[in-house]
Protein 1
Amino acid sequence: MGLVAPSRRSTQMYGVPFPCERHWLTSTCNHQSDERDSAYSDHQTSYTMSVTSSVFNFRYENGRRYHAYAEGMYPVPNDEVEADRLELQHHAFRLTLDGKLHRAPIPQDIHNVLDIGCGTGIWSIEFADEHPSARVLGTDLSPIQPCSVPPNCEFLIDDFELDWIFHEEFDFIHTRALVAAVKDWNRFFSQAFTNLKPGGYLECQELTFPIKCMDPSVTDENSPLMKWSALFVEAAGKLGIDGTGPRHLGPKLRSAGFVDINAKTCKWPVGRWAKGDKFKLLGDLAYADLMDWLPSSSLGLFTRVLKWTQHEVEVFLAECRAEAKRKDRHYYADVLFWYARKPRNTTSVYSHEPVHDEEELELDDQNQTT
Ligand SMILES: C[S@@+](CC[C@H](N)C(=O)[O-])C[C@H]1O[C@@H](n2cnc3c(N)ncnc32)[C@H](O)[C@@H]1O
């Protein structure tokens, strides 16, 4: 899949042992230009040259830019519009956790951290800044991470659908917003389990489908937004992706061998209709996120899988945007925070029922203007 065969020679980047021969460094400062590559030592050049020749060969479709490495694997663009959306969404996740980057009870002085499907790398960078003891590795299909990063943070191009091959085990593995990416959560968790140290934690922070509405009369038939959500699930399903998957991770974590499984379902109201300052701000962020997620999530999927034309998708999304603006509708998204621990001793393991609690939303009566 994709890149030239990896070199087996010794690997040392920025003074940090390179974790795996199969991965490619994504330091965007180095690999845009072959001339700059020649300034590096031999082993660095071989990595940066292979990156230059393939992962930047982006594919353009319907006015959006898509990843080149493992082409077609992820149906969502990797352009600036999507990168801006991911950064905004990051703030919504942090606000949901009252400023925290994680829920798992990890120590402040944690060491090896892996962020799978890291996108723009914003979580990895902020985690590295806040945990100077940590060495944070972010991986993604797309080289869209900045070149100026903390010294304890690095990025690699990698496809998590392949076997995970890292030279070291991790204390903490984090993933976020992979609902449109993971095809097989069982395999994903089994690989995470294998690559964690005994006692290490996995955390998955996930948005999920379908979108929900507080108003009982709203259905897929009378709401373009509910219909969009159902169509997303249908189209993603045809690619082997379960849009509702993040709701059902407990048994999968358990069968992978994890214990102390914990889940919390939070809510993002779409717009300012929910009571409380925090939910009003979250509502603004979720609304802005949705406005960009509608085309990001649908253009590729609906044209490739449902065989709609670009025009048909855009007309339909205009109806969805109008629906999301309605003050008499109260849409929200469920946001799930799962974490689980790899047992310290795998010989005698008891895994209790997952702990799961759910946040409530209340309508703000002051806000009910149509
Ligand atoms: C919605 S973004 C989330 C990014 C980041 N976790 C965040 O929360 O900001 C999903 C990311 O998963 C990456 N991705 C999708 N499929 C992947 C795969 N098979 N291997 C590695 N990364 C993948 C995409 O390139 C994209 O950057």
Note: The longest strand covers residues 196-207.
Protein 2
Amino acid sequence: MFAMPPAPAAMAGNYRSVTMASITIDEKICKGCGLCANACPKKVISISKHRMNANGYFVAEAVNKQNCIGCAFCAIMCPDCAIEVEK
Ligand code: SF4
Ligand code: SF4
């Protein structure tokens, strides 16, 4: 029976492992300004119509987390540093 030889190390280097990026929004300090939502190219973030923090702001929330590409545009745009991006 024919068996495939193992892939050489150089070939293995042609493949990129795919890891999911994710964001964490600190709702306590979010002001609901929407800058992060506007900056996100993948429409991951939106401003909640229901969740309000102790300061009375409707907060940003990740609604399509699975689409996050880890570009960090949201974190860069947030004036209150309320977003952390992990890759
Ligand atoms: S890291 Fe990029 S893709 Fe992910 S939520 Fe932020 S702006 Fe959107
Ligand atoms: S940019 Fe920052 S403060 Fe503004 S909605 Fe997004 S997380 Fe909240």
Note: The domain at 29-86 is CATH 3.30.70.3270 (Alpha-Beta Plaits).
Protein 3
Amino acid sequence: MSMHRDPAAPIAPRDKREEAATRLPMDVDTAAHQRFVAAARRYWRGPLFRALHAQASAAPDAGRELVTHRYFAWLERHLQRMKYSGPHGLVAIAERDRETLTRSAPKALPPGLLTLDPALVPPMYYTACDIHQQPGGLLADLGAHVYRAGVSGGVVGAEALHERFAVRVVGSRSVERILDLGCGFGRSTLAFARAAPQAHVDGIDVAASCVTLAARETPPALHDRVAFRQAEATTSGLPSGAYDLVTSTMLLHEMPEAAVRALVAETARLLRPGGRVAHLDFLPPADPVLRLLFEGHARRNNEPYLLDHGRIDIDRTYADAGFTRVDVTPFDEEDGALDVPPRAWRLPWHMIVAQKS
Ligand SMILES: C[S@@+](CC[C@H](N)C(=O)[O-])C[C@H]1O[C@@H](n2cnc3c(N)ncnc32)[C@H](O)[C@@H]1O
């Protein structure tokens, strides 16, 4: 198997953009390390994935044992580790920049833009593992900075993903109040604020580091109609029937089955009659090779609940909670993402949209 870059690879080199997007200052050695990891990841998810997909599709029963599969699996685990951990990993970079990152933290924010809840106890499933192999996870005080740097490239890095989702969900509808669950550092929330220019958008997340970074990075033009709050999504404490649209991006797969069921009930409580819920998340692919890689991804990326979501009977769960018209559709996060055979390894994005009776 050749280790040279496939000149026909459709994934464009993104070094400069990736580096700029981390927004963490790097010395020369650290930048070289991160560039190496990014380049190796492009090889892993492009040419190596395509070779594996072709080989394993031709020998379905032997896919797991293929040497190419073992390389793929090893690289997935260890490139992710190298990105975050060690002297040149993102956690160390953020730590070296701690003073600057925390100095700007108390920046005065307009009243109502950020509400923290220091008494909030995060659920045990959330604290029990370093999800995505990010040491300390998002509860660490610099967690959101590290997370933002980490997602600037790779399988969740499609640039327009959030905008595509928000525009598709909102369409030409008139929406006045939107709630974004598990808002992270605000990418999903701000995408909805832009897609629905008349709407007020609330973003909630259990991690203080996330909502704080989200509020700080909200452009002043959106200050009067966006608000971030530290809250747990299944027990949000927000008023019943207050929202036209409740949404989440990449939240459900981080929750165990029982928590997803509780979340569906909570969204039904929060929506007005006729309001809609729209989730963007992952469901198991039908292609057996992609399914093998998806299941392996759960272990290799520290995603202990990734497969729980696929076990839920979505129609029944939403119907039991008072929803009608549940639509589950594959989502193309960028042009060509749903091509067969796939051009690159990607997570199996799906939109789940339902209307409250
Ligand atoms: C993968 S991130 C996605 C963030 C954001 N929606 C985006 O698309 O960039 C998942 C987020 O969900 C949050 N989260 C996980 N479980 C949660 C819960 N039970 N309640 C609220 N937030 C939660 C995490 O803190 C994290 O910020």
Note: The chain has 14 helices and eight strands.
